[in-house]
Amino acid sequence: MNPIALIEKHYPPGSTTHRILLQHSEQVAEKAVIIANRMPKTAVDTDFVREAALLHDIGILFTAAPLLGCKGTLPYLCHGIKGRELLDAEGLPRHALVCERHIGVGLSAEEIVRQKLPLPVRDMLPLSLEERIVAYADLFFSKNPAKLGFERSVDKVRNSLARHGEDKVVIFDKWHERFGG
């Protein structure tokens, strides 16, 4: 499976969106692979982590995110479920779940209902070690063109998550203890 070829099937090389998506995804993949390589070899599928990290944001093209060159109609929050749909259609169900479950530190069905989020009502929480590694690595990198290429500090990640509740910070801190260092 060639994740770059799959990205290029949906994102024309040379386009703004292709450039932003690829740079962001490569940064996430690099960090995720470093983390995976620190885990016991039998615990994590490093090749899958790399592929999933490269593909985790493939659904952004369906969203209305002009800063990223995305001309879709959906709220940006929907990029995870659209990525899942796209990768399910490609016959990549494990990769598809990473797309759906990588938003922040995950979303519960209860949160989706309580916050009236424009998402299907189901748990979208990273469950496998590989899903958690990709979600964790993603928290450190923005797709915002002004911030592209820069890694956020742990404190900036915590502050960003704190806006969504202290429970999100607690999850991040557990991940950071396991993956961060």
Automatic annotation (TrEMBL):
Family annotation (CDD domains): HDc
The organism's place on the tree of life at top rank: Bacteria
Keyword entries, A-Z: Hydrolase
Domain HD: 22-138
Alphabetized InterPro entries for the sequence: Diverse_Catalytic_Enzymes, HD/PDEase_dom, HD_domain, HDIG_dom
Stretches that traverse the bilayer: none
Keyword Coiled coil: no
Gene Ontology molecular function: any one: hydrolase activity
Pfam families documented for this protein: HD
Xref: NCBIfam families: HDIG
Annotated protein name in UniProt: Phosphohydrolase
Native source species: Syntrophotalea acetylenivorans
